[in-house]
Amino acid sequence: MGVLLYQSDIASRVGSKWYGSMMGSGLLMIATGGMWIKNSSVPVPGSIVPVTGTLLVIIGCAASQRPGNPLGATLKGVLCINVGRWLARISYALYLWHWPVIVLLRWSLGMEHWSSIMIAALLSISLACLSTFWIEEPIRTWAQSSRINNGRHCHVRYV
User: Fold this and answer.
1) CA angle, 93 as apex, 9 and 6 as ends, to 5°?
2) Would you say residue 16 has pLDDT above 70?
3) Cβ neighbours of residue 90 under 8 Å, at least 6 residues apart?
4) 3-state secondary structure of 67
5) In whole angstroms, what is the distance from residue 126 CA to residue 5 CA?
6) pTM of whole model > 0.70?
7) 137 with 89: CB under 8 angstroms?
8) CB-based contacts of 2, cutoff 8 Å, min separation 6
9) Domain extents for the chain?
10) Where would I find the H helices in the chain?
11) Residue 153 — φ and ψ, nearest 5°?
């Protein structure tokens, strides 16, 4: 969906009166998306509502970044908060770790109670932090500093 959104360049055609309503509607769809997801409807059709909400937020954010737009400046300020930047930094590792953690905890503890959901979230975030800062970043740093005999950068960073 994100590739289609990028290829369509729809954000450049969104009028300024729609930024806020697109982002607000999208956030509401993301927040309430869990009500439409049932065990039998994952991933489709239950995930259509939160995915559509995410697309609306992305379109609204991209469209609001035009120069002179106060909403864009406010949004940039919110997205530059340290917690948001930290979550963005570990987001890929969190994406990789969350599903194995959920599957293993569902088999062992069950995921019916809020405490097991919190354990899954904390464990996923912890594993994402460990793998980001102890594996991903050292490899990236090493790859950027390593040079092959002809002076080119090592291509490990593109893997």
Assistant:
1) 5
2) no
3) 125, 128, 129, 132
4) coil
5) 32
6) no
7) no
8) 55, 58
9) 1-80, 82-159
10) 2-8, 19-32, 48-63, 70-79, 82-108, 114-131, 137-145
11) -70, 145
